[in-house]
Hints:
Strand content: 15-25%
Shape: globular
Bound molecules: zinc ion
Structural class: alpha+beta
Largest sheet: 8 strands, mixed
Radius of gyration: 23 Å
Number of strands: 18
Strand order of the largest sheet: 1-2-8-3-9-16-10-15
Amino acid sequence: xxxxxxxxxxxxxxxxxxxxxxxxxxxxxxxxxxxxxxxxxxxxxxxxxxxxxxxxxxxxxxxxxxxxxxxxxxxxxxxxxxxxxxxxxxxxxxxxxxxxxxxxxxxxxxxxxxxxxxxxxxxxxxxxxxxxxxxxxxxxxxxxxxxxxxxxxxxxxxxxxxxxxxxxxxxxxxxxxxxxxxxxxxxxxxxxxxxxxxxxxxxxxxxxxxxxxxxxxxxxxxxxxxxxxxxxxxxxxxxxxxxxxxxxxxxxxxxxxxxxxxxxxxxxxxxxxxxxxxxxxxxxxxxxxxxxxxxxxxxxxxxxxxxxxxxxxxxxxxxxxxxxxxxxxxxxxxxxxxxxxxxxxxxxxxxxxxxxxxxxxxxxxxxxxxxxxxxxxxxxxxxxxxxxxxxxxxxxxxxxxxxxxxxxxxxxxxxxxxxxxxxxxxxxxx
Length: 430
Ligand SMILES: [Zn+2]
């Protein structure tokens, strides 16, 4: 067991050795506000994300990764040398946090050797982690659980992944005898606004295979994402002073609300679907009587179904325009990413190596699907197969986000083991 932690045991002695470093890094990184922003022209979407990126460059250099730098796409790139002839393994996490929940002023709390009682977050009495409603938490009695104070997100998505990669690299730097394939490290920005892999320099990265550490539950390997599109509906009305509006005002706010309310409620919504079921999700609305904008995302694991969801939205938007011909309704559809599964399945070793690494880290591996996307979905489609490994973080994009130190340590150990696995396998043919 690692020094200072008196909770549940770790999966392996390696995980125990990594635990304290993972935790200390995690606590340091989550305090840095790296919230991304939707639909800004600049890159990164917010300058403050680079506060963490620059710190990571410094820390990587201190660990001896002399080439660590911030590149033109605002990604941190660094190399960890390894066995000659072995495939080069990419390790990727993102520094940004979601714009949907407050990300500034995070004060993490470590609930050491958690007793199993409800965790009331001190900053907001409404925010309670109830093990009766959170089965993954209920299974972690005795673990050291990290939460926010209830007023902000925690930022385990994806600072758990960042801390785990960093702790694994630090361990390997301290243990040159430990077998490892050469690794390339990337910390991206703006993943949460769908721009994580934008301008990602695949040639400069130089990896043969890669893994994002951006998943959740212990032991999970995600090889399947949604295919996703983002849609913006712009409704133009006619604004008139309400005092003289009779017969003239066409209120874009009301029309936008009409459109949103005409979407299916009991199906095709994230709050009413699970597993492989897709959805059309309005996530932002803004405007006034003159002009209103509704931003939506459409997602499905099946590309044909995804098209059908977009068609449904088009039909509903056209219906609004038909009912109020004085309004103008425009719809703009953008591709976000594609399901990565067919790309990953082209090289079965990518999945096999990860499952073996999870096993060596003392954890039962399980294949999972993600009801979202990752940087890896975009990279896989561009030719770098990149499944998603667990981080131990849970309840993402919520002020009730939490992470188990034991699980984070297991994820860091999985990274160390993964680089070992890739030296055992066939070193040619990639
Ligand atoms: Zn993430």
